Every structure is written in structure tokens, then in C-alpha cells.
UniProtKB/TrEMBL annotation:
It comes from the Eukaryota. Residues 19-65 form the F-box domain. It holds the Pfam family F-box-like. PROSITE patterns: FBOX. The lineage of its organism: Eukaryota, Metazoa, Ecdysozoa, Arthropoda, Hexapoda. This is Uncharacterized protein LOC117652536 isoform X1. InterPro entries: F-box-like_dom_sf, F-box_dom, LRR_dom_sf. Gene3D superfamilies: 1.20.1280.50, Ribonuclease Inhibitor (3.80.10.10).
Amino acid sequence: MDQPLLPVPDDGAVLPVPEGALLLLPDDALLSILAHLSPKDLLSCRLVAPRLRELCLRPELWRSTILKYGGPDMGVLADALGVVPCLGEIVPCGLSVDLDALAQLASFVRETTSVIGRLVFLVNSPTDAAHATTILEKVSSLGGLKRLWLSVGNTPSDAVTPLFQAICSVSSLCELELVCASSPPATVSWNDLRNPSLTRFCYASSSALVDSFPQALLTAHGTTLEEVELSGTEDLPVALLKAMPRLHSVACSPVDSLSQFLPAPTLDTVFLSAPREDAFPRGALDLLREASQLKFVSFHFPTESPAAPLEALVRSRSARCLETLWLYSASAFLDLVAAALPRFPSLHTLYLEDPPSDSFLRAVSPASAPRLATLDVPPPVSCPHSWLHGPAVVDVLQRNPRLHLRFDRCPGIPDDCPCCWCRWGCHAELRLRPASLDSPFSAHRRRAGCPADCFQVAVAPCPSCARSAA
């Protein structure tokens, strides 16, 4: 019989672990442990032992790592780019970074051999554009760059032309997101139209027209694009979009030309932003009503004829297969939403931009929404912990054994929260671990089919509350 690697006492006492015992573990066990370390600690562990020096640089430990530039972690980023084989993403530390952040990043990247999967650039000056171009050209030359997010402020067109030309030269790019304060340069072109690669393209501009650059991109990658988002434009290039054989997701303004998509045999996802006019255009209503296999729909309720888009969806050929519905500006129309639920028997996820009323929660039942598993809501102004213990919330969770409630970007619970539940110490982990507030809350213990972080909310006072009350 094999001897144990570590001594096991007969009396169950805990013995000190011998120095170096960790290195007795096999590689896969050590890698599982190392996966829990921060990038900074991983780099430090390389100095502990020759075996760790190699293990800490395994690609599986770095392939999903996100490192930030323009903040306090620039040293870690510089060290990582000098030794690691790959990185998941390099992103700015916030919406604004140090003036020389891209310059520093360019100096780190110049000698790197790390394959980087995603880059995020904030370009607000000609100098930023020059450094971003340098970084992009070097990273793309190493291969492996699949995703790029670029925000360009009011920067002269001639300053960003080399950057956009560099974008056109990236081979095998899968996702491109552009946010432009002004029109992109019209002089750039895609180098090789024979090898399209983009599957997702998002474009936001202050212009109401789709500029020549995105037009050229849609043409060049039309055979591979699956998801297209065009924000802020009313001049939708429907002819280009309709000709894409793999396109299944469109996000855009609700415009009249959307009816040209019909019969839309591949379209299953539609995100419609807030209408510029008070009413929903007829063409957008036609799309909701006539598309045959929509599974994900998102729209804003218009101020004029607010029920029109919901009624179009209720009467649509997609009503029975709709799985996800996101509703914005719906606070005054929750009764309409509640009445519509039985018409969507496959609905799995419902997102509400506005807090649900008690009457709406009472309308949610296994009869009205038999497959509803997730209700995404904004966090209440009061304590979210207290709201979870409210009678209407407890009731809806008890009556719907499949249902999970999830907060949309909950800010957390203050240490001095005055609500009785927090004073009693109920569910203290919600305050001690704020990330718990992002969990899906239910009235049941986690089981098969539940999200991995399913959090059971007690439907009766938890033990600490009961002790306090006693």
C-alpha cells in the first residue's frame, strides 16, 4: 500500500506541515492551488523554488488574467509582460488614466513575447493615438489578439488614421467595439477582404449616419458577422445586414427600416434602444410582430402608445419561444407586463430597469410564468437585505420554487445600516462579503440547474435573528 505524502496522526490532531511539503504535490494539484493567487503573488512565487518558476508561467494560469494600465498595478503589468506567455486582457484602470499611461504601456509591450487576447484603448489625443498604434501593431504581430475595444475622443482624423489602418491589418480579429466622438477617417480600407474574421461588431458614434469605415467593415466581414450593434444611428444599413448569412443578433435604434429584415429567418436577438421620437416606428413594430424565432428581446417603452411594442411581441410568432426579455422605462406599465407573462410560456429571464411593485410580484406564479428562473431588478434605495425579507419578496420566492432574484449592480450595504435585519446580524455575510449581493437569491438550497452562486434567503428569521428576538 502506498504511503501518504504527509504524516497522518492516529489521534486526529493537526500536525504542522513540513517545510517544502507543498512541492510534493503533483503538477495538476499545484496548478489548482496557484490558480487562486493574484498575478503579483504568482510572479513572486517564481522565486521560491525552481519547480514553481516553471509552473507559475503555465499558460492556463494567465490565459484569463486581466491586468490594468494607468494605475498602481503598472509594475505588475511590466513584470508580467516580461515573462508570461500570454494574458487574457489589458485594460485601463478606469474611464480616465494618467497622461503617460499609454506611453508606459507601449514601452512594456515593445519587447514582450506575451500573446494578448484583448486590448482596451482610450484615445484622447494624437499622442495617445500614436502609442495605441504602436501597441496594436506589436500585439497583433504576435498573434492571438481576438478582441479590441477602442474609444476615440475628439482627435484629428489624420492622427487616428494610422490606428484605424492598424485595426484593418489585424488578422483573425473576432470582436471589435468602437466608440467615436467624431466620424472615423474615410481613407482607410480593409487589407484583405478574402479572409473575413469578425463575428461581433459594435459601433457608437455621435453621427446619425453610418460612416464609411463601419460601412466598409460590414462589407468586408459580412460573411462571418453574427452580432452587430449600431448605436445612435437612424440610417441603418439594412441591405448590408440582411445579406449576412450568420447574423442572429442586432442592436440598434427602433427605426422604420427594420421591417426590411423580414422574414429574418436567422434573427433570434433584438436590442432596441430608446426611440428618438415619442412613438415606436411602424417598421420596428412589424419586426417584433412578424419575426418568427426571437428568443431575446430588449426595448424601451415609448411615451406615445406605450403598450404598442409589448402588444406586438405578445401577438408575435415568437411569443411561444421567447426566453429572455429586458424592459426599460417600464415602471408605469408593470400591470401590462404582468398581464403579458402567460403569453410567454418559455420565458426564462426577465430584466426590469425599474423596481417591481408588490402587485407585480404577486402576479408572478408557476401558472403565469412556468419557466421563469431569473428576475433581474435594480437594488432598492433602502437596504437590499431588508427588501429581500419583505413580505412580497418572501411570498414570490416561496410560491415560485424555480425563481431567483438578482440585483443589477448592487452598491452594497453600509456598515451603519439602520434596518432591523442588519441590526440583528441576519445574513451577516451579505455585509462582510459585498460580492454576495450579486448572487441570485432564492428560497431553496442550491440544486441541479441552479446558478453556481445561488444564495438561499431564509423565508423565516435566520438563527441570529431568532436569538436576537429572544
